[in-house]
Amino acid sequence: MAIIDIDHLTKDYGQQRGVFDVSFTVNEGEVFGFLGPNGAGKTTTIRHIMGFSKPQEGKITVEGKDSWTSSAQIKRNVGYLPGELAFPSNMTGTQFIDFMATERQITNREKTEQLLERFELDPSSNIKQMSLGTKRKLAIVTAFMHDPAILILDEPTSGLDPLMQERFIEFILSEKEAGKSILLSSHIFSEVDATCDRIAIIKDGEIVSTIVADQLRQNKNKAFKVEFSKQEVYRHFIEQSTLDIIAERPSQSQVKIHIRDEDIHNFFKELSLYELNFISEIKFTLEDYFMDFYDRKKSIEKGKEGLSHGMY
Hints:
The structure is a single chain. The strands form three sheets. A six-stranded mixed beta sheet has the order 6-7-8-3-9-10, with helices on both faces. The chain has helices at 42-49, 71-77, 93-103, 110-118, 132-144, 162-177, 189-195, 213-217, 231-240, 264-271, 286-291, and strands spanning 2-14, 17-27, 31-35, 57-62, 65-66, 78-81, 150-154, 181-186, 198-203, 206-212, 222-228, 244-249, 254-259, 276-282. Mean pLDDT is 89; it is low at 296-312. 32% of the residues lie in helices and 29% in strands. The protein is elongated, with a radius of gyration of 23 Å. The chain folds into two domains: 2-212, 3-Layer(aba) Sandwich (Rossmann fold), CATH 3.40.50.300; 222-283, Alpha-Beta Plaits (2-Layer Sandwich), CATH 3.30.70. It is α/β, with parallel strands linked by helices.
């Protein structure tokens, strides 16, 4: 059953900015990954799901309710964690938690206490004096303290240190085990790969691929890094080989070769003719798949984790 249904969403801001004919569903009980660099259209799509923006074309429903006409009810029911945080500056974290509990008519604080403990948050200080990481923890607590069945997460670990990023992944997996339906928008391959059942890749406002994560993990194609013993051996291989060489590193006499499972015997047979230093398998990853849709020669997001790609 589709909990979130995006049907041909289009919002054109001009100059090739916006989202264009975007369609995907988030099914009950699954974690759906929405992967792409900043500016690709992830946040624009999520803002339409939450009813902050009205589609120019297409329709979005959450539990069968129109995201624009029923936005108030959707906002009450969903756990939404925005990428950009905004808090009242004249409150402490504790006061803000109390305020949100009153707004949501929460009388049982058990879930709130669990979240505070899990993310090691002391909310007693004034919000404007909190670090970005502490503000992110506060946002996590207040987004999920009402124990929603649907979670919509936009770059959820931005500002968290590596330990808390791992803690957040554990939290997502526990919510998944509890049957929650989760949309996880991110540019970080590790958290998408660790949590998601299906993944949509967005580029320039368009969905370029939707994949089942297990099929990607069980990919039958392989890649190997091979280093030859001498430059002349390397050059001879480059000139003579019929294998699928996908990258070359002449300075180190190395190549990267793509091999299908059915061709593995021929691969080793051909390499047995050459003197080698080593052969090592390179695991096919979500990052490899993603980079098929982006320019391998440049960093997609300078300084951002996971979106720059080298040869190996």
